[in-house]
Amino acid sequence: MRSPGAGSPEGGLEEIVVTAQKREQNLQQVPVSVTALSAEAIANKGITQFENLAQVAPGLTITQGTQRTGNSINLRGIGTSVFSIGVEPAVSVVVDDVPILNQGQAFSTLTDIERIEVLRGPQGTLFGKNASAGVVNIVTRAPTETFSGRIAASATTDEEYRVEAGISGPLGENVGFRINGFYSDFRGYVKNLATGNYLGADESWGIRGKLVADLSDSVKVTISAEHSETDGNSTPRTVLSFAPGATVFGASLATNLGTIKAGPGNYLLNQNYDGIAKGESTNVSGRISIDLGSVDLISITSYQKWGLDTQDDVEQLNLPVFGSATGLVQSSPYDTKNVTQELRLVSTAPGPFQYILGAFFSNGETDRSFDRGPSGPLLSKWVSNAGTKTYAAFAQGTYDLAATTHLDAGIRYNHEKIDVSFQRLNVPATQPANNAICLAVCTGNASDDAITGKIALRQDVAERVMVYASFATGYKGQGYDVSSGFTPARAANPVKPETSHTYEIGFKSRFLDNRVQFNLTGFWTDYKKFQSQSAVVQPDQSIQFQLNNVGKLRTRGIELELQTKPTRELSFDLAGTWMDAIITEYPLANCNTIQTTDPICFDIDGSGSGTARAQNLAGKRLPNAPKFMFNASAMYDIFMDSMPFDGFVTLDYRYQSRVNFDLFQNPLYFQKAYGVLNGSIGVRQRDDQYRVTLFVNNLFDKHFASNVGGLVGGQPTSVNQVLSRNSRRYFGIRANYNF
Predict the structure, then answer these.
(1) Taking the CB of residue 389, how many other CB atoms lie within 10 A of it?
(2) What is the mean pLDDT of residues 167-189?
(3) Dihedral sign, CA of 126, 131, 134, 140?
(4) How would residue 8 be classed by pLDDT, with cut points 50, 70 and 90?
(5) Three-class SS string for 628-689?
(6) Can you give 44-71 as a three-state secondary structure string?
(7) Which of 220, 496, 562, 676 measures 20 to 30 Å from 507, CA to CA?
(8) What single-letter DSSP state applies at residue 738?
(9) What is the pLDDT of residue 104?
């Protein structure tokens, strides 16, 4: 929700400044479909984790894997959900002008945030090659001019306890600092009957420091550093459905479940190992801004190191499997490092022409080892390394064709080098011991060049009313399909780049004395060679992940955002998306796991042997791409003039239509339409020195899955689900004190 802000009429909507085009601009003057959340909106909506953004940003969905490295951020139906470390995401996450390398890094605690911007559609011109579907731009708070501090604490009925504290202020006449830290302990939300513990548990802490120094009237330096650690266990998968007599690796599934009732409301499991998920992240960045008169020279340098150690119970049974008391365990540590450097020249002189010129370099690599065992047909053990180097140059300018007519245009050249190293450390029982499975080290390297661009025409049709039309191209680089099935052929042939063309028209407006904001966007995007992963069941019941280039996709739709503040007391927001995200060309796709016969699943060669079968997916919807989504929220301030504090009440409702989580359209892997209502009530001092909030998540306890798939080692009709914490009702209290 929004409240009166600087530069806005009393009782009207806050003026929001964004950096969606790498310069400070009023949100309503940017020819991009953007959802912007201010610090107050983040606090009011209780957004403390990255995945909470799916509750407030239209067109944004998140597909959860069993570990955060398998999560996918999707905008307008497009995202990247892959097992491989050699593929970058389609949605870029940027924190204080620094892009992260591994998508799993994004799924962490959000703390001390000034603003979050969700930019929909290709943003590659300014943000690079891994922004072909959009960008989530996160801006942390800067030091304050006077000494200040804050303490916040919260507790919930599902046993999450969280505390956050920070101080900020001047260190001298021209130097300011900010330090913020947090600690969080969450019990988990799905009970494992075999161990008595809860899965989804997480204990984490972190600290961030920021130092800003004006070295002279023209030179400003910002140094930021942060470190965080987390110690938890696996994201839980519970059984959704299975056929009578179903088995997992020969063991009766019904017997293993016992009294557990499979279904959408199943928050119980029975497996003999809880798994682990231990992460550690360190990020350091430096920003130098030099005022050269008519332009600013900006340099941004960063180093990031992120690691995640994971172990999972693969078969989800409370039985020894293949001679192991803990069952079949899959261990997969990650270690990611990345260095980036960006230089920008940003024009500052007034005039009809404004521009940005820039250059960008990044050098990143990810190490991953994989060990699934200790024995049996699914035994797999390997080590790998994937590297990427990027060199880019970009330019974007705005020219005022007339006082009310503006042209925005930009272009980016990108050169990328990628490499891979892979070695198997065991011999599968079903495969010969030869170099075709990389018992010797398999290596590969490749390079690619791409040009992306954008052009937009804006017309101011009245005061605070603007229409625009734009065309943009997107690009996501080639990548290596690093999984247990890696071969010299994969090393020699990386998956081809993914490209897109987007047409967009938009209307942005404010009226009725700045009390109503209404934005409307229509978009049409065509994708070629979309990078998507499928899980292929092998004869030994193991699953090998396979990366494909889908022929062509199309995603089109309408997005609207409405914010109103009709009275001093009442604020109301509505944001919605209608989206048609479909495959337009994929004639020889894998059959899904329950397809066996014509006409859907047909013989490729017409021999009738059934050894090579495929399906045509043209016209089918993309996974986790709901046709309808909307968010509605209201806030009512209760002004109590006779008291030293005021009250407030908020309501937030989110709805999305049915989705299928399988690219290959397995009819068992779906989530039906659902809606979730959150609410809060509280009091705050008028100068916001303190605030106390009672809140409820998912008031009507509406259960929903954030991913659905098959059980490893089970029949095709055995289905499990990933249930997020937000799919259950819980209550809580938050208290903030500012000084």
Answers:
(1) 16
(2) 95
(3) negative
(4) very low
(5) EEEEEEEEEEECCCCCCEEEEEEEEEEEECCEECCCCCCCCCEECCEEEEEEEEEEEECCCC
(6) HCCCCEHHHHHHCCCCEEEECCCCHHHC
(7) 676
(8) E
(9) 84
Side chain identity, residue 713? G
Give whole-number Cα distances, 489 to 66, 412, 436, in Å: 29, 32, 8
Mean pLDDT of 655-677: 94
Q: Can you give the pLDDT at residue 531?
A: 84
Q: What is the mean pLDDT of residues 19-33?
A: 89
> What letters, b where the CB count within 10 A reaches 16 and e where it falls short, cover 3-25?
bbeeebeeebbbbbebbbbbbeb
For the beta sheet containing 719-723, the strands, ordered from the edge strand earlier in sequence to the opposite edge, are 237-241, 719-723, 705-710
DSSP at 483 = S
Confidence at residue 714, expressed as pLDDT on a 0 to 100 scale: 85
- Helix extents (H) in 106-221: 124-127
Nearest by Cα to 734 from 187, 206, 160, 166: 160
pLDDT value of residue 10: 52
Q: Rounded CA gap, 29 and 20, in Å? A: 11
- The dihedral of CA 596, 547, 536, 657: what is its sign? negative
| pLDDT (average), residues 477-499 | 89
The position carrying tokens 């495929």 is: 614
Q: What is the pLDDT of residue 9?
A: 43
pLDDT tier at 325 (50, 70, 90 boundaries)? Answer: confident
Q: What is the 3 state secondary structure string of 252-292?
A: EHHHHHCCCCCCCCCCEECCCCCCEEEEEEEEEEEEEEEEC
What is the residue type of 661? F
Residue 184 CA to residue 230 CA, distance in Å, equals: 9
In this structure, the number of other CB atoms found within 10 A of the CB of residue 442 comes to 23
Mean pLDDT throughout 467-476? 95
pTM of the model: 0.91
- Round the CA-based radius of gyration of the chain to a whole number and report it: 26
Please, which residues have CB within 8 angstroms of residue 734's CB and are 6 or more apart in sequence?
A: 46, 152, 153, 154, 682, 691, 692, 693, 695
* Helix locations, 482-629, DSSP H: 488-492
Sign of the C-alpha dihedral computed for residues 676, 681, 682 and 688 taken in this order: positive
Number of helical (H) and strand (E) elements in the chain, helices listed first = 4, 44
> Hey, what long-range contacts does 72-76 have (CB within 8 A, 24 or more apart)?
72/103, 72/624, 73/103, 73/106, 73/136, 74/133, 74/624, 74/625, 75/118, 75/120, 75/121, 75/133, 75/134, 76/120, 76/121, 76/133, 76/134, 76/523, 76/525, 76/555, 76/557, 76/577, 76/579, 76/581
Tokens 């984490």, located at residue? 204
Average pLDDT of the residues in 159-180 = 95
Question: Would you state the structure tokens that stand for residue 698, as one six-digit string?
Answer: 């998912």
Q: The tokens of 217 are what?
A: 């009237």
* Block residue for tokens 């090998």: 544
Burial class (CB in 10 A: 0-12, 13-18, 19+), 271: buried
Residue 109 tokens, joined:
């605690």
Query: Does the structure show a pLDDT above 90 at 471?
Result: yes
Condensed to tens digits (0 to 9), the pLDDT of residues 564-613 reads 999 989 999 999 999 999 999 998 888 888 887 777 888 876 666 666 78
pLDDT at 347: 96
Which two structure tokens, joined as six digits, stand for 381? 């053990």
